[in-house]
């Protein structure tokens, strides 16, 4: 297992689901992990305790990652605790409602763009100076396969995920000469706590279309993040890596 010893990773939206699995994996590889949370302080603290009980390093940090002041305070707190931020995993998300075209409003598009375009921008602007000075950094966006699939009644979310991918590619070209890589991981439907109300019929309908005939796990995404975060990913930038059993091919 490749070590991330001496690196500090910020994982946004890390109190549960994919974010929690990513935090656990990065800590297991030796990184100091800043567990960002918004509403679930108790869950974030429990996760950090779980990581520490296994010999890892992790601390919870509050921020509404859509708010500039919150982001600035969070990054200052992480730097006070761990000196610097080397790896950023942009995982935070909000509710993902379905709307017909008639129900869609510009505000509902903006609600999604705040998580997937504005938040990454605010965080990058806080950490890039240090990354550039050190000549090393990893920015890893958590996207989605929906941009390729074009799910109906989901245009607010799909559009924001498309914008997130465009942002990733542009940043990668701009930052490549500085030693900072920028990539996006596009998971398929990975069951987490947010899917507790999904039915077995819905799961079956999805997996029937997946070439590998089963769903992935949060750990599948976490392992891909860890690969990109380490030295093994040093020559990979501007890429979208689909973690979905072959459900999309491009």
Describe this structure in words.
It is a single chain. This protein has helices at residues 17-28, 41-53, 68-82, 106-134, 146-149, 155-175, 200-207, 218-229, and strands at residues 8-11, 32-37, 57-62, 87-90, 137-142, 180-187, 240-243. With 250 residues, it is α/β, with parallel strands linked by helices. It has one domain: Rossmann fold (3-Layer(aba) Sandwich), CATH 3.40.50. The chain is globular and about 45 Å long.
Short description:
This protein is an alpha/beta fold and 250 residues long. The protein contains 8 helices and 7 strands; from the N terminus they run βαβαβαβαβααβααβ.
Shape: globular
* Percent of residues in beta strands: 15-25%
The CATH top-level class label: Alpha Beta
**Could you report the average pLDDT, rounded to the nearest whole number?**
96
The number of domains is 1
Q: How many strands, which pairing sense, and closed or not: the largest β-sheet?
A: 7 strands, parallel
Would you count the extended β strands for me?
7
Question: How widely separated are the two ends?
Answer: 29 Å
Task: Supply the CATH superfamily name.
Answer: NAD(P)-binding Rossmann-like Domain
**Strand ordering within the main sheet:** 3-2-1-4-5-6-7
Low-confidence stretches: none
Total count of helical runs of at least 4 residues:
8
CATH architecture field: 3-Layer(aba) Sandwich
């Amino acid at each position: 297992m490749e070590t991330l010893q001496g690196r500090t990773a910020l994982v946004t939206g890390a109190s549960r689901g994919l974010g929690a699995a990513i935090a656990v994996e990065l800590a297991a590889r030796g990184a100091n992990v800043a567990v960002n949370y918004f509403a679930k302080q108790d869950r974030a603290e429990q996760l950090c305790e779980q990581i520490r009980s296994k010999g890892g390093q992790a601390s919870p940090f509050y921020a509404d990652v859509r708010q500039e002041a919150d982001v600035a305070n969070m990054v200052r707190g992480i730097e006070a605790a761990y000196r610097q931020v080397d790896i950023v995993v942009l995982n935070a998300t909000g509710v993902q409602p379905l709307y017909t075209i008639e129900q869609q409003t510009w505000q509902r598009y903006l609600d999604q763009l705040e998580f997937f375009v504005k938040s990454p921008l605010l965080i990058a602007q806080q950490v890039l100076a240090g990354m550039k000075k050190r000549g090393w950094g990893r920015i890893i966006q958590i996207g989605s396969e929906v941009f390729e699939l074009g799910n109906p009644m989901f245009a607010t979310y799909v559009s924001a995920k498309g914008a997130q991918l465009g942002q990733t590619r542009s940043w990668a070209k701009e930052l490549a000469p500085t030693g900072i890589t920028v990539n996006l991981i596009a998971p398929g439907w990975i069951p987490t706590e947010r899917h507790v109300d999904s039915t077995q019929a819905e799961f079956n309908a999805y997996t029937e279309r997946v070439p590998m005939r089963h769903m992935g796990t949060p750990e599948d995404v976490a392992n891909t993040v860890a690969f990109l975060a380490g030295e093994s990913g040093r020559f990979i930038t501007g890429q979208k890596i689909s973690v979905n059993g072959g459900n999309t091919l491009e």
